[in-house]
Amino acid sequence: MDTKWEKISREHIDEDLLREAGEIIRRGGLVAFPTETVYGLGGDALNPESSRKIYSAKGRPSDNPLIVHIADLQDLDKIVSHIPKAAEALAKHFWPGPLTMIFSKNEAVPYETTGGLDTVAVRFPSDKTAQVLIKAAGGFVAAPSANASGRPSPTSGKHVFEDLQGRIEMILDSGSCEIGLESTIVDMTEDIPVILRPGYVTEEMLEEVLCRVEVDRTILSNLSGAAPKAPGMKYRHYAPKGELVIVSGESRRVTAYVNDRIKEGAAVGKKVGIIVTDETIDSYEACLKKSVGKREDEAAVARRLYEILREFDEEGAEAIYSEAFDYGGMGHAIMNRLLKAAGHRIIKV
Ligand code: AMP
Ligand code: MG
Question: Is 201 in the same domain as 302?
């Protein structure tokens, strides 16, 4: 199949093009599109055949459910069996935006979309292109991240093209995503809502609205045997080809430890990459150096992280060392993704 790769502008929505893209989804085809978090691979959420195609295009295990994207709050009622009060409150504060909520599904949603579960994950994205596309596609678009399964989530149209060219009908490309990490997922089917995946909307932000939320205990740990409630969280995602190790500790000790590894690598001709910050980059020996930006600017770190992991693959890094980041605010989401990419290898120095 030929994949149409269309560059689009966020400022001037091309209504004709989005109508064409919506038509592709209505007919059962797949279109990748930008959202504020990462690029999504969209198909008709109410058509089981479309969901099957999504799994096959990504090479995604079919027990890993898809998030259904809506563009009108009124539409939520049409796919879930019950909307708890707490969910109404969260929707009011955080929708449209980078928050996904889990509800009990109704019969309109096929099990192919929910990976066989009786619950459905729903998000109302704030990206205007996404909103216009969802409406043009009939209102309910199932969209996991538009990467090949096991690769870092795509934060640009180019990343989508690399992974999915020839497998989907169209890519709508508006450049880099604003946030760069996937949405926060909260399970609203429990008495006390539970965060299943950390993201831009933090525990603190949710607690300002709800008083109490819990955090799934598998999020930052490597508990073998404990099954995460978001099935996707059990897979080793985002793994770069080179072995990634996180090095945590006092800054000078981290630099010294990593510099030793760079020298060892250089001695045997091994390509070593490092993920560091603007503050520290000059203290490291020569190697494949990448800065995520200023340490305190966690939004910049989030935006750049996946792109860096992809660059290392292209450049053939065989060993990668990353500085660790603080867990406050979005740092929780950043460390969650980094730990998964590293297969939970973290060294304290
Ligand atoms: P992605 O769209 O690639 O960001 O992945 C979607 C994530 O949402 C995966 O981790 C899924 O396991 C999770 N998810 C989707 N639907 C549900 C659900 N009904 N219950 C729990 N987790 C879900
Ligand atoms: Mg994904």
Answer: no
